[in-house]
Amino acid sequence: MRELYPELEAFSINILESDSGHSVYFEQSGNESGIPVIFFHGGPGSGCNENHRRYFNPEKYRTILFDQRGCNRSTPNGLVENNTTQDILEDIECIRKKLKIEKWLLFGGSWGATLALLYAEQYSNHVTGIILRGTFLARQCDFDWFAKSGANKIFPDYWLEFISCFSDDEKTNLVDTIYEKVFSDDRNIQLEAAKTWSLWAGRVVTHSLSGEYILEIEDEDKLINEVKIEMHYAKNKYFIMENQILENSSKIPNVPVSIIHGRKDLTCLPESSWSVHQALIDSNKKNSKLVIVSDAGHLASEPAMIDALITETDEMANILANLTYST
């Protein structure tokens, strides 16, 4: 079973300054002359970490990580003004131009897969290949499964503990309720809402791991800001049209596509990856491959998922090795 590549440092760290007050962190690691790959982190609201560099052979890949607007090392942390899906896609394109990269490989998991697919549909001329993990299509049914009716039937005890924190009126629309609380002027209300949501989400996301999930909070402000971003996007239906990704799948270029999904994923159901794969096949995109990982859930850090992802990045490196990448 394959493991993460050894730890490595970034060889370049930069900030992309926008006209709207956002400063977006991005970095490069690996081989400066290697195959460019951009990593889209999940969330919305989380961020990249040093282990994300390790899914790519550092001798073959030039790996670009970035923290989306308001997330992690991007500042102001938690800022939702001028923070939409289209803003993120434009930031990605600005990073590509700043780095003088003509085409790059897209690698995204969960919400990162959403962004990768949207970028491929909008900027198809700049894509050499796509690797997706645990695809999230940002449809109403996808979020409802997680926060309304679906996962609650599998985790009824966790769900009861979650919704018991809200009044009957507040339960009618949990997204609006948590949004209002996490944007409250009362920090205690903010923190309690962020903790309540994060405990529920963490329990579902980690269900395939051994042991009981415990919410560990190292930075309360960071936790609040992460949930602010997440609720901002959920409340605004992720700033895309319903079923936009599948309806526009014909715009995805005919490049190698690898879609990996854990069979035990109860955060983003395997049906989403299956639907993307079928849409590409129906659009005569013959290079799409779907891999269902029987022993994996949603997280990229699960051993079976690490094995599957690194297998795909290694195979993709062999496929893309002879292309020219810089302008």
Could you provide a short overview of the structure?
This protein is an alpha/beta fold. The chain is about 40% helix and about 15% strand. The protein folds into 2 domains: about 10-140 and about 240-320, Rossmann fold, CATH 3.40.50.1820; about 140-240, no CATH class.
Write the layout of secondary structure elements.
Elements: E1 12-17, E2 23-30, E3 35-40, E4 61-66, H1 85-98, E5 104-109, H2 111-122, E6 127-133, H3 140-147, H4 151-154, H5 156-163, H6 168-171, H7 174-182, H8 187-205, H9 220-235, H10 244-247, E7 257-262, H11 270-282, E8 288-293, H12 303-320
Parallel strand pairs: 3-4, 3-5, 5-6, 6-7, 7-8
Antiparallel strand pairs: 1-2, 2-4
What is the alpha-carbon Rg in Å?
A: 19 Å
Q: List SSEs in N-to-C order.
A: EEEEHEHEHHHHHHHHEHEH
Largest sheet: 8 strands, mixed
By oligomeric state, this entry counts as single chain
In which range does the helix fraction lie?
25-40%
Detail the poorly predicted runs. none
Structural summary, described in words:
- The chain starts with 11 loop residues before the first strand and ends in a 7-residue tail after the last helix.
- Helix 5 packs antiparallel against helix 8.
- Strands 1-2-4-3-5-6-7-8 form an eight-stranded mixed sheet, with helices on both faces.
- It has helices at 85-98, 111-122, 140-147, 151-154, 156-163, 168-171, 174-182, 187-205, 220-235, 244-247, 270-282, 303-320, and strands at residues 12-17, 23-30, 35-40, 61-66, 104-109, 127-133, 257-262, 288-293.
- The protein folds into two domains: 12-138 and 241-320, 3-Layer(aba) Sandwich (Rossmann fold); 141-239, no CATH class.
- Helix 11 (270-282) links the parallel strand 7 (257-262) and strand 8.
- The longest helix has 19 residues, at 187-205.
- The protein is α/β, with parallel strands linked by helices and 327 residues long.
